[in-house]
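go over both lines:
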Amino acid sequence: MDIAGWQNERTQAGNAPTTIKNALRIISQVYQLAATEWGMEGCVTPSAGSRCREAGRRVSAASSRARKSAF
């Protein structure tokens, strides 16, 4: 499973970073369940080490002004 490619596709499609992160959590939980509950010890979460990009993170106007005034 190409997690990085999937993340890039979702980002380019306009999905919010939180939406992508939530989907990655579900994928990770399924792999953990398979390893612990179903005895599939060889299952390794494909999203391990994958990080969501925060560049698209929304910032409120108030926090943006606060950051600017700090400098």
Remarks:
- The CA atoms of residues 18 and 52 lie 8 Å apart.
- The first helix runs from residue 3 to 12.
- Helices lie at 3-12, 17-36, 61-70.
- Residues 3-70 form one domain.
